[in-house]
Design brief:
Strand order of the largest sheet of chain A: 3-2-4-5-7-6-12
Number of helices of chain A: 11
Shape of chain A: globular
Shape of chain B: globular
CATH architecture of the largest domain in chain A: 3-Layer(aba) Sandwich
Largest sheet of chain A: 7 strands, mixed
Number of strands of chain B: 7
Oligomer: heterodimer
CATH architecture of chain B: 3-Layer(aba) Sandwich
Distance between the termini of chain B: 47 Å
CATH topology of the largest domain in chain A: Rossmann fold
CATH superfamily of the largest domain in chain A: Thiamin diphosphate (ThDP)-binding fold, Pyr/PP domains
Number of domains of chain B: 1
Largest interface: A-B, 41 and 50 residues
Number of domains of chain A: 2
Chain lengths: ~325, ~325
């Protein structure tokens, strides 16, 4: 299998879906000759110029038009340049895309993918650095995914395009230039299935997106401390694969949840709740711990920015604390 | 008149259907048979009917919170509409949507919308889909004077213009956005004047004259279908009732209401049909009676229909594979 960058795997998925289904197209700002703010569609123009609809800076109507095109049988992909800008389009995400099927008694469907870069670590400060998947996972009618690896980004993207529901697809910016094995050609990673990224017997770390990569790095280092860490990548927040999580917790009895979103009311609280409401509760031998972003807007200064979200050393420290090690 | 008698009487009948449907709705609310809110279209019938008369059955519309008129004019089933208002499983939306969310995909109706301007970008996207596919369909977007002051209006009309989309933006200026008079909250005299900002034609029509509405919309629809881009049409009209069920109308005078009622679009059209010898009084009376029967049947159907089951509460949140 070839090693590819996350951004390459994503671009490959987009192109393959363009080729597969004439109803698939993409809308967004600067996605044509410029190639998108992060270069995801770089080089696709002019070959796919009919598939790449460049838009004015009109987030509400970009998403709204995506909804309209989806209602009449297209399968639009909307790129929102930074997920922070999705706030301008919330009406058409939350009140329209998520609800049209339900409130019309199943008459309408909205096969729409909204893909957007998220997260901090680039010095872009408070309005270009948020991780907000939990905000969307709270809304019935939306699916929310956040692939962590090149393999998953390609397979989940294809699943998202082929899904008949609105899917919010979050790509952490720092993942774009990470590498991993990606098979050639068509394959699907199902939405709603978590993945055991590393097997272990002593503790379960539940992570998503960038925190999966950081947790795997922490797990390697903790091996030296004699702690065998299992890392579960939720991959999809909505629907959430409770079964995979519960099975792992039954095996290890200890849990650390690591999220890049700020912690209060974050998705980790939902994961925690599902564990304590399940059979796994009786197997817990230590209180479930959560590590999340600080409840602050993302700051500019690199030292502050780094301190605002969980890093590898924070994860190591949190695991060691659970095992009573300093 | 260049339209066939059949088409003219169809227009008359649709207007009467809307009027009687709305009066029945009001009656049912007063009998505590309607649970939620609704927004009556009485007085504006010529706008919906004139506009939809210019569309093909396969063309799309998007509608508003005040959507019963559009829905009837585009051809939805009165029984299923009434059942929806009564929250029944046989309603267009199986009782999940109610008055503000009626859609009927079988007639190209992409949904009423509880959010002011909610349908404007959606219509734009449906038109974009038609342009990409070359399917020659046109989308007509109903919205009110209030929606013309939202950001989405600006975004969408600009997008439709730069892409020359097959869409007609049809503003029903009924003079009030809830209690807000249009001249107090809109900087231009005519909403159609804003078309200049988008380099598209802006047309003002008497929204109480069904034939004038038809003519303007037909021209815009023809242009759109030929690939000549969008049009903004402003139909000046008036809603006879309050904004919604609980509106004492303190923001306007009874005299003003009476003045507009003199311009009753149905009465005007009937007089025209009679004076031009298109129809006789007996023919129109027969239509009125037919419609009264249809409304009564719709009501009976709705009353006798079952309610949705609580076990099905979570149905339709997501489309399942293969649906």
């Amino acid at each position: 299998m070839a090693e590819k960058l996350y951004i390459e795997a994503l671009a490959e998925a987009i192109k393959e879906e363009f080729e597969r289904d004439p109803n698939v197209f993409m809308m967004g700002e600067d996605i044509g000759i410029y190639g998108g703010a992060f270069g995801v569609t770089k080089g696709m123009y002019p070959k796919y110029k009919d598939k790449l609809i460049e838009t004015p800076i009109s987030e509400a109507s970009i998403v709204g038009a995506g909804v309209g095109a989806a209602l009449v049988g297209m399968r639009p992909i909307v790129e929102i340049m930074f997920s922070d800008f999705m706030m301008d389009a919330m009406e058409w995400i939350v009140n329209q895309a998520a609800k049209l099927r339900y409130m019309t008694g199943g008459q309408l469907k909205v096969p729409l993918v909204i893909r957007s870069p998220m997260g901090s670590g680039t010095g872009a400060a408070a309005q270009h650095s948020q991780s907000l998947p939990a905000m969307f996972a709270h809304i019935p009618g939306l699916k929310v995914v956040m692939p962590a690896t090149p393999y998953d980004v390609k397979g989940l993207f294809k699943a998202a395009v082929r899904d008949d529901n609105p899917v919010i697809f979050f790509e952490h910016k720092l993942l774009y230039w990470t590498k991993g094995e990606v098979p050639e050609g068509d394959y699907i990673v199902p939405i709603g299935k978590a993945d055991v990224k590393r097997e272990g017997k002593d503790i379960t770390i539940i992570a998503g997106s960038i925190t999966v990569i950081r947790s795997l790095e922490a797990a390697e280092k903790l091996k030296g401390e004699g702690i065998d860490v299992e890392v579960i990548d939720v991959r999809s927040l909505s629907p959430l694969d409770t079964e995979t999580i519960v099975n792992s917790v039954i095996k290890t009895g200890k849990v650390l949840i690591v999220e890049d979103d700020n912690k209060s009311y974050g998705w980790g609280a939902e994961v925690l709740s599902r564990i304590v409401e399940s059979d796994a509760f009786d197997y817990l031998d230590y209180p479930i711990q959560r590590l999340g972003g600080k409840d602050v807007p993302i700051p500019y200064n690199p030292k502050l920015e780094r301190a605002a979200v969980p890093q590898v050393e924070d994860i190591i420290e949190a695991v060691k604390a659970i095992f009573g090690k300093e | 008149m260049e339209l066939s008698k059949e088409k003219l009487l169809w227009m008359y009948k649709k207007m009467v259907q809307i009027r009687q449907f709305e009066l029945k709705t009001d009656e049912l609310y007063k009998k505590n048979m309607i649970w939620g809110t609704y927004h009556l279209y009485v007085g504006e019938e010529a706008a919906a009917v004139g506009a939809c008369a210019a569309l093909e059955p396969t063309d799309y519309i998007t509608s508003t919170h005040r959507g019963h008129g559009h829905t009837i004019a585009k051809g939805a089933d009165l029984k299923r509409m009434m059942a929806e208002l009564l929250g029944k499983e046989t309603g267009h939306c199986k009782g999940r949507g109610g008055s503000m969310h009626i859609a009927d995909i079988s007639t190209g109706h992409l949904g009423a919308n509880g959010i002011v301007a909610g349908g404007i970008p959606i219509a734009t996207g449906a038109a974009l889909a038609s342009k990409l596919r070359g399917d020659k369909r046109v989308t007509l977007c109903f919205f009110g004077d209030g929606a013309a002051n939202t950001g989405a209006f600006n975004e969408s009309l600009n997008m439709a213009a730069i892409w020359q989309l097959p869409v007609v933006y049809f503003c029903e200026n009924n003079q009030y956005a809830m209690s807000a008079p249009v001249n107090k909250f809109t900087a231009v005299k005519n909403i159609a004047d804003r078309a200049a900002s988008y380099n598209m034609p802006g047309v003002i029509v008497d929204g109480n004259d069904v034939l004038e509405v038809y003519k303007a919309v037909k021209e815009a629809v023809d242009r759109a279908r030929k690939g000549e881009g969008p049009t903004l049409i402003e139909a000046k009209t008036y809603r006879w009732f309050g904004h919604s069920k609980s509106d004492p109308r303190v923001y306007r005078t009874r005299e003003e209401e009476e003045e507009w009622k003199k311009k009753d679009p149905i009465k005007r059209f009937a007089e025209k049909l009679l004076s031009e010898g298109v129809a006789t009084e007996e023919e129109l009376k027969k239509i009125d009676e037919e419609v009264a029967k249809e409304i009564e049947e719709a009501y009976q159907f709705a009353v006798e229909s079952p309610e949705p089951m609580v076990e099905d509460l979570a149905k339709y949140v997501y489309a399942e594979e293969g649906e």
